[in-house]
Design brief:
The structure is a homodimer of 328-residue chains. By secondary structure, the first copy, chain A, is α+β, with helices and mostly antiparallel strands. Helices cover 32% and strands 26% of the residues of chain A.
Chain lengths: 328, 328
């Protein structure tokens, strides 16, 4: 925490929250936390940059919400309980206002309170480019973290919810077309599958959140686990809007557009009933979309019984210039 | 960790380091760490922005070194042992090169290896503005963290090393004047007082690192501890260059310029001998520069026995436009 005390104390600290495991929160050189006995600490960091991950001029509450949500999603994919957050805000002059910061903290608090995430520190600086970086820490029972490397040949591959909504919304907004509120929300205020992730410890052999695109994120699991996979397109859930998008532009779009924040995971087939029960309990669609294969078999996508060519570009890469959100 | 796998794996992961308490490092949705029993986790986050905290075009190794050093300094001020780091890199196209990243990681590794800090995760994105944000986590024996709020009336006030070198170097560079290598190093590659901070647990009642400027940082301790203070200018150590700066431009300069990363701390007078012994052992100058007073007495600076007027601007504020490093 540097010298921007007035700014931080007036607008951020009152909304930071508190909890017994926060020994020392915002306002010192560092925060002090007390993880529970028998746990390990899980940490994720995601950075959102104006004009890349959100539109310049985007509602500050949306930006804050998304910056926290994408990190919640990372912890969900690890099966961890989110607990403590740090926030790095690099603000252009136009955002260093009472109004902007209050709006930002409104979006932050809405989501942070939902999961009892306490803001324990951070840094606020000026920058020409609005950059929001969140470090989110949480806990997992020792040894229970779900990694990307545990998928085994014969495991089922599962996907929560439907994918492609955020990608479709983005494509529409980039083309200056109207987007329905519920689709825009999937882009600007994604839902992290926190409860689902927690329930998957002991059930899933590997998990990842779909942030880069389904094929890209599946690829991360396959690489880490040294396995291959086959996906059945028919089993992947699409919203009506995305179904139309698929009809017009091909199935590759929702499978390679990022920002879905659904959970993609593998599990032994004997856990199928337990996973279906989870879907019921939590009211989250869980579809068995494929099976883990030997590594030599690579990735196959099956549509109506026939294997499809895999697109070269499997997901969102912040260093591929074609993927940058251009707003000016 | 988002989709920039090639970049990160090729240039960053090989230099991340490893240690038994890193259960899962770079390459999953989150990292998993195992803090030691009987400890609390201390976390600091500091963000450096090109053109604000370092010059545009600065050597990438310097940038990395400083980004880690300022966080090491925060943990030192807490009396914590640094352990695990996360790195958020928002890079302009010009920096997203093999050369730049290798140079960056060279500076990072030089310092990280010195303190056995393991890089456990992060995020890399494009941005128009080079922004480096480091989250540094460490450990402290439960209950032993040194805060800003423990200073008591009658405590001595101590300062490590000499202050003003970085501020002087910056003033010279901004005026396009030559700067001696050792002074430039104080600005670009500050030394965090890690060993000293660790030794101060149980000795210091309060501590802070001098990042914003001595008067500003003293003010943070005084506010948090609800006390006042008197400083004796004669007891503050200046380098020869800064002594000349004081003669020409006044004592206010080194006491309000930031980036010193020395430790300012309070301690009961009965610990004086132990603190002087520390200075000997560690080869770090430790000067008793003042005394803690009742809060009503505010802050006094004494020079040659007479009280000095306190400057309005007590330190570096990233939101005061006058403080921004302008390079274009």
């Amino acid at each position: 925490l540097s010298g921007e005390f007035n700014l931080i104390y007036q607008h951020i600290a009152p909304l930071a929250g508190s909890r017994g495991d926060v020994v020392l929160g915002i306002g010192d050189d560092g925060a002090v936390i007390q993880p529970q006995l028998g746990t390990q600490v899980v940490v994720a960091l995601d950075t959102l940059v104006a004009g890349r991950h959100f539109f310049v001029g985007q509602d500050a509450a949306d930006i804050a919400y998304k910056a926290l949500a994408v990190n919640l999603s990372d912890l969900a994919a690890m099966g961890a309980t989110p607990k403590w957050a740090l926030l790095s805000l690099a603000l252009p002059v136009s955002c260093a206002t009472k109004q902007w910061l209050e709006q930002f903290m409104r979006g932050w608090s809405e989501l942070a309170q939902q999961y009892d995430v306490v803001l324990i520190g951070g840094d606020t600086t000026y920058s020409d480019t609005l950059t929001v970086s969140v470090t989110l820490m949480g806990e997992v029972v020792t040894g229970q973290a779900i990694t990307r490397s545990g998928a085994r040949v014969g495991d089922d591959i599962w996907l929560s919810g439907c994918i492609g909504d955020a990608g479709f919304a983005l494509s529409q907004l980039l083309a200056a077309r109207e987007v329905e509120a519920n689709l825009a929300r999937r882009l600007h205020r994604p839902t992290a599958r926190v409860a689902l992730g927690l329930s998957l410890t002991g059930l899933a052999t590997a998990a990842i959140d779909v942030s880069d695109g389904l094929l890209a994120d599946l690829g991360h699991i396959l690489k880490a686990s040294n396995v291959g996979a086959v996906l059945n397109l028919e089993n992947i859930l699409f919203s009506e809007a995305v179904s139309q998008w698929v009809d017009i532009s091909g199935w590759e779009n929702p499978l390679t557009s990022g920002d879905d924040y659904e959970l993609l995971f593998s599990a032994n087939h004997q856990n199928s009933a337990a996973i279906r029960a989870l879907a019921q309990q939590q009211g989250v669609p869980l579809r068995r979309i494929g099976v883990v294969l030997q590594v030599e078999q690579g990735v196959k996508v099956i549509k109506n019984g026939s294997e499809q060519p895999i697109p070269t570009r499997r997901g969102f890469d912040h260093f591929a210039s074609t993927d940058i959100i251009k707003t000016s």
